[in-house]
Design a protein that fits this description.
alpha+beta, Alpha-Beta Plaits, 3 domains, five-stranded antiparallel β-sheet, 11 strands, flat
């Protein structure tokens, strides 16, 4: 956890690598994932860089892999996942891989082309068989009807002049797509003026498109006509509607013989198709085993060459120079990676790593694990921390689920949430391996540890509230007893329990006494209780945020801000709002029903809110007879002093820092900083003692809070804005924490409404009908509990808790003006590519 207190210390380094060792060295750095490279050729076009040809080769290989993968998916061949990602291939293996991919692509292309041709032939023969079978049915039906003249003219064997004299009818047979049949019929009617006799029959089973494999539905038709001119027109219409025409002999014997021949050819062609399909399956299955490994290797190669394009060539063209940000803790790993890269290619000249000084703002890198990553993402969503700034994520691990639980406090609902989070944590390995594309599920899974802690904390606050599905648990026995006899209880619908007589002076062991569950003034009591708790937690949370600014001031060597900013801020907050919290505790302790002094009985307890308003307005209220306006002696004078000191803190916050900087500016000349150019440290001296080259972050960054280099007028404007914002925000932010009370009350009331109006419906009858009612009522109650109270109310409480951290807490010390450290890491690149593919 210590690594999360602030971001990692970064160093700007220069890499001097021999060209022959550049590929293997960058490959090792990608496996290590500890280096963020800078572009040393920002003005050079992407197509004019040194390794653009290699990138194009990788693009071509990626295209081939995409084609192969599409063909594998088309045939439904399973692509096994690799247990361990292969390393980037060396330059010699790249040539072999390129040739292998070329051969594989050509083989699959040839197989696909042959399969399409065979399927096209099979489709044509199938359509011909259907045409012959359907036309035979047409002619048979005509013979049965007794259309002798038509039949004779259709199947007559007479030829030449004799056929023409008898006015013989001709016909055209074929298939057309089913959705085009109505338009096809209308067009034939129009061109022939009704002189075409059309018969059609739909195919029962769909056919397969040879190119796409999709199902197509077609209809067989026979068009009867008279005259060669009309025949020509009909053929043109068929061509326009993409209808396939097939020869159909007029003789019944010839049609039967032709059908037999077509069926024989179909059987032979089907056998060839099966053999081709089996061979294609074997080829694709063998390719699928290596497809994932090839894809990973090509993506790594492409990433390496993209990174090498960021390097600069020295004037002698014998050395590649690169610049990168490296966490100082990872400098030994980077040097080891460079040494391994040089050894892998057999280079006799080692690569060098040289740390240089710069005045540029380094990137922010917070090292996280699977537990802390979710909380760090919550902070980064607001803004990435400035370099070496205090990181709020460390404290958010506790404060975030706790403030959520204050609003979501219910033992039952918290248990449901904790079980859901615990299930995701226990099954995280198998769930992560599924790689779901559901965005909502991925958000829940990424925050599984947050959900688990929110559920556990909600169970604790539910125990304190003594609330489980809107009911209370009497585990330790109530501290109240009923002092009335049975006769009094029977005659009165409601009775008041006086703490003098009914309270045992021993509080309930933990949380709220279960007696309040049946009290008529339950909401009034819980309102006061939770409202005060909200203010107490809010003031403590804000004071903690203001105190965290001291850590930043001390680290960035701006200790004057401790006296000129922190002290007046904390004094202003403490004398006003911490004093209000003190009055709450004093009221709880000092006023009691058993107090002998009348002024300190419960009837004389003053309102803390009225006292605070009178304190700010310097006004007074007339107390009731026998009571006191204030809680203790000299409180009025103390409050005046507190308000006066708080008002004096405002000009200190406004003018202290600008006047101090104005007075000391002349004595602080601007230091000379390196610009981090590639020519600095060009002596190529190998760094062996890492302790001597670590940069000093204190002199480089100010955590996004510093305005020392600006003119005095700009400093005054900034300070005025910050002062006004802080003074006003102490009031608005304190009131903002009342959302803890509001959402907690709303959650408890919704839970009670669901119990009384839904589940109680099934508890009224005590016979078998009541059992059925209870079953139905419980189903609805459980559904509404999960959907409304756990999901919707949980999301609402989550968003309000997020706002309390982002605005009320982090605004006191957090600038969030940094930029994230994005190292060159193969693992991250591959994950991004997979998400892009999905």
């Amino acid at each position: 956890m210590g690594a999360m207190f602030r971001s990692e210390e970064m160093a700007l380094c220069q890499l001097f690598i021999q060209p022959e060792a550049a590929y293997t060295s960058v490959s090792e750095l990608g496996e290590a994932g500890s280096v963020q490279f800078r572009d040393l050729n920002p003005d050079v076009n992407a197509f004019q860089r040194k390794f653009v040809n290699e990138v194009r080769r990788c693009d071509e290989m990626e295209r081939k892999l995409r084609y192969i993968e599409a063909e594998v998916h088309k045939d439904g061949v399973h692509i096994p996942a690799v247990k361990e990602a292969p390393r980037a291939p060396n330059p010699r293996e790249i040539i072999d891989l390129e040739a292998h991919l070329e051969k594989t692509e050509n083989e699959i292309l040839e197989l696909s082309h042959n399969a399409v041709n065979l399927k096209q032939n099979y489709l044509e023969l199938t359509e011909l068989r259907h045409v012959l079978e359907k036309t035979e049915a047409f002619f048979t039906a005509q013979e049965e009807i007794g259309m002798d003249s038509l039949t004779k003219s259709l199947i007559s064997d007479e030829t030449g002049q004799q056929a023409a004299t008898r006015g013989r009818l001709g016909f055209v047979a074929g298939v057309v797509q089913r959705e085009r049949v109505p338009a096809f019929e209308r067009m034939l009617w129009r061109i022939s003026r009704g002189n075409v006799f059309l018969r059609r029959a739909e195919l029962d089973k769909p056919l397969e498109d040879p190119a796409t494999g999709n199902e197509i539905y077609k209809t067989v038709f026979v068009a009867f006509f008279q005259g060669e001119q009309l025949k020509s027109r009909i053929k043109k219409v068929c061509t326009g509607f993409h209808a396939s025409l097939y020869p159909c002999p007029p003789s019944n014997t010839e049609r039967q013989d032709m059908v037999k021949g077509v069926r024989t050819r179909l059987e032979d062609l089907n056998m060839v198709l099966n053999q081709t399909r089996d061979h294609r399956q074997r080829v694709l299955a063998s390719v699928a085993k290596e497809l994932t490994s090839w894809t990973i290797m090509v993506r790594k190669m492409k990433a390496i060459y993209h990174t090498l394009n960021l390097f600069n060539m020295d004037v002698t063209k014998k050395c590649l120079i690169g610049e990168c940000w490296v966490p100082t803790a990872d400098l030994p790993n980077v040097q080891k990676a460079l040494a391994d890269g040089s050894n892998a290619c057999g280079s006799s000249i080692p690569s060098f790593l040289n740390c240089i000084e710069t005045d540029e703002e380094p990137p922010t890198f917070n090292r996280t694990n699977k537990f802390t990553r979710g909380f760090q993402n919550l902070i980064d969503a607001y803004g990435v921390a400035s370099y070496r700034e205090c990181n709020p994520a460390l404290y958010t691990i506790i404060t975030f689920p706790f403030l959520f639980a204050v609003m979501f406090g219910d033992l039952g609902h918290g248990c449901i949430m904790a079980m859901f989070g615990g299930w995701m944590v226990v099954k995280e390995v198998s769930l992560a391996a599924k790689k779901s594309n559901n965005e909502i599920w991925n958000i829940f899974f990424a925050g599984r540890y947050i959900i688990l802690l929110m559920g556990c904390f909600s169970m604790y606050t539910g125990l304190v509230y003594n609330d489980i599905f809107s009911k209370s648990l009497n585990i330790f026995g109530s501290s109240w007893h009923i002092p009335y006899d049975n006769h009094t209880l029977a005659e009165n619908g409601a009775l008041t329990l006086d703490p003098k007589d009914a309270y045992t002076e021993v509080p309930y062991f933990i949380g709220i006494d279960p007696i309040w569950q049946s009290a008529d003034n339950k909401i009034i009591f819980l309102n006061s209780y939770k409202m005060k708790l909200s203010i107490i937690f809010g003031v403590i949370h804000m004071i903690f945020g203001v105190c965290m600014s001291v850590v930043n001031y001390n680290f960035f060597k701006r200790r004057y801000s401790i006296f000129l900013e922190f002290l007046p801020q904390i004094v202003f907050l403490a004398l006003l709002f911490l004093y209000m919290v003190f009055m709450m505790f004093f009221k709880w302790i000092a006023y009691s029903t058993k107090n002998d002094e009348l002024a300190y009985t419960q009837g004389c307890a003053p309102s803390v809110l009225i006292l605070f308003i009178n304190m700010m307005l310097f006004s007074k209220n007339v107390p009731e007879e026998g009571c006191k306006e204030f809680m203790f002696d000299a409180q009025s004078d103390i409050q005046r002093v507190f308000v006066f000191i708080a008002l004096l803190c405002i000009p200190v916050m406004l003018l202290g820092k600008p006047l101090y900087l104005l007075a000391t500016k002349k004595n602080n000349p601007k230091p000379e900083h390196s610009n981090g150019s590639v020519n600095q440290g060009i002596e190529l001296q190998e760094q062996t003692d890492l302790g001597d080259v670590q940069p000093k972050p204190e002199a480089k960054s100010s955590g996004g809070h510093d305005h020392e280099d600006e003119p005095f007028s700009e400093i005054m404007i900034h300070q005025a804005i910050h002062t006004i914002e802080y003074v006003l925000s102490t009031i608005s932010h304190t009131a903002s924490y009342l959302r803890l009370w509001a959402l907690s009350l709303a959650h408890a009331e919704l839970s009670e409404v669901l119990w009384n109006m839904v589940l109680t419906f099934g508890l009224k009858d005590h016979n078998y009908v009541g059992a059925i009612k209870l079953y139905v009522a419980f189903c609805f109650w459980a559904l509404f509990t999960l959907a409304i109270l756990v999901m919707m109310e949980g999301l609402s409480a989550f968003l309000h808790t997020l706002r309390l951290h982002w605005v009320e807490f982090m605004s006191k010390f957090y600038a969030g003006l940094g930029y994230i450290f994005q190292p060159f890491c193969f693992k991250t690149i591959l994950e991004q590519e997979e998400n892009k593919d999905d």
